[in-house]
């Protein structure tokens, strides 16, 4: 009996250590009030995105929930208005798998909203599910869609400066290895999905890094944020139904609640004094070093140029001209399973190696950021 009690005590002690060191998230205590400011949060109908939007609404911001499902998005907006007491929470349709939908969202937003102070790219997928597309759906939703949306909304971010862009990434970026010859190839099978997910998270980190270089001196800063291990819909969305009842109790014990997962994205969006750390990667409300592949400036710039092509941006198209551009299909955004014939294919984007750009000529590099210690969150 004594041995049993000792074993239980040791297990409880070990769990407490794991909980307070790995599971429990430090709270963000950034700006007290956001009245007069506007924020866009993608994928805000549930999980981390919904908790992020709730905190922004509680602080008085006008919050746009950019979600694919109108039914779930409007229901989430209603819930957040009720819970926050802030009536400035609205839904706008956005399907990141469709470039036409991204352009339609940007056109609608720019025509109706005079400000954009915070843009949080939270939406993402971890698997293609049963969907089969002629492109890399994981890269499209997790990186290319957010890349295009940021590009289209940059004029409004600049006029509202100081403003911020937060890209929700993951520690999975450490396993990513971008292959620019196969960047947009379709993903088939769970092994390819795991690789493609890690690659898309690496793309998030490199995107934030290059965006910081592109926006230096504009008053717009950007950050990649790791929410930590979170018990959200993303975790169980593609798990077989028979396995979910077994995993739910385990997830509840060892994973953060969505509210905890929202703390680092909120920190990057709100914390004062981190502007010199624009382009960096944050976890647990602190800046964190990344592996060499995630701080490769040449790869970051190469990804930027490849992303412009995959997003359908022409060589001479800049953010200012995009503000007035119209989407090819301003109607109802297409679903992820619909074809996108207007969008470039991998074969069009990646010619033979003999005709590829000589990346050794790229000389622009991200400046060395000051290694200040952010305030404790």
From TrEMBL:
Keyword Signal: yes
Main location: secreted
Keyword Oxidoreductase included in the entry's annotation: yes
Bias kind Low complexity: ranges: 328-337
Pfam families, sorted: adh_short
Stretches for region Disordered: 310-365
Subcellular location: Secreted
GO MF: oxidoreductase activity
Keywords per UniProt: NAD, NADP, Oxidoreductase, Secreted, Signal
Biased composition (Acidic residues): 317-327
Cited CDD domains: retinol-DH_like_SDR_c_like (cd05327)
GO cellular component: extracellular region
Superkingdom, taxonomy of origin: Eukaryota
Compositional bias of kind Polar residues: 352-363
Family under the similarity heading: Belongs to the short-chain dehydrogenases/reductases (SDR) family.
Reported function: Putative oxidoreductase.
Protein name, UniProt field: Dehydrogenase/reductase SDR family member 13
Lineage start: Eukaryota, Metazoa, Chordata, Craniata, Vertebrata
């Amino acid at each position: 009996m004594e041995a049993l009690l000792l074993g239980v005590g040791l297990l409880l002690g070990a769990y407490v250590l794991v909980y307070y060191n790995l599971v429990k998230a430090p709270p963000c205590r950034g700006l007290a009030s956001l009245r007069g400011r506007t924020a866009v949060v993608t994928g805000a109908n549930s999980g981390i995105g919904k908790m992020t939007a709730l905190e922004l609404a509680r602080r008085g911001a006008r919050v746009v929930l950019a979600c694919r499902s109108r039914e779930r998005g409007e229901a989430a907006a209603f819930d957040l208005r009720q819970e926050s007491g802030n009536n400035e929470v609205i839904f706008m349709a956005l399907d990141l798998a469709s470039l036409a939908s991204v352009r339609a969202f940007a056109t609608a937003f720019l025509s109706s909203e005079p400000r954009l102070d915070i843009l949080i790219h939270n939406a993402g997928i971890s698997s293609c599910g049963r969907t089969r597309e002629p492109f890399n759906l994981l890269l499209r939703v997790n990186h290319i869609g957010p890349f295009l949306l940021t590009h289209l909304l940059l004029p409004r971010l600049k006029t509202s400066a100081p403003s911020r862009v937060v890209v929700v990434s993951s520690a999975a970026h450490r396993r990513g290895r971008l292959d620019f010859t196969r960047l947009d190839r379709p993903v088939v099978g769970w092994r390819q999905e795991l690789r493609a997910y890690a690659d898309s998270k690496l793309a998030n980190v490199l995107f934030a890094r290059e965006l910081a270089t592109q926006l230096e001196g504009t008053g717009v800063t950007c950050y990649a944020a790791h929410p930590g291990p979170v018990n959200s819909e993303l975790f169980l969305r593609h798990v077989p139904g028979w396995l979910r009842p077994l995993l739910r109790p385990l997830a509840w014990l060892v994973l953060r609640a969505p509210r905890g997962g929202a703390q680092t994205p909120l920190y990057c969006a709100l914390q004062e004094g981190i502007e010199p750390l624009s382009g960096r990667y944050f976890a647990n409300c602190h800046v964190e070093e990344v592996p060499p592949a995630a701080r490769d400036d040449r790869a970051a710039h190469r990804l930027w140029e490849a992303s412009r092509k995959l997003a359908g941006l022409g060589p001479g198209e800049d953010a200012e001209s995009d503000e007035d551009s119209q989407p090819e299909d301003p109607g109802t955004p297409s679903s992820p399973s619909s074809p996108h014939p207007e969008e470039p294919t991998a074969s069009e984007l990646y010619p033979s190696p003999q005709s590829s750009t000589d990346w050794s000529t790229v000389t622009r590099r991200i400046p060395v950021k000051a290694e200040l210690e952010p305030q404790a969150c």
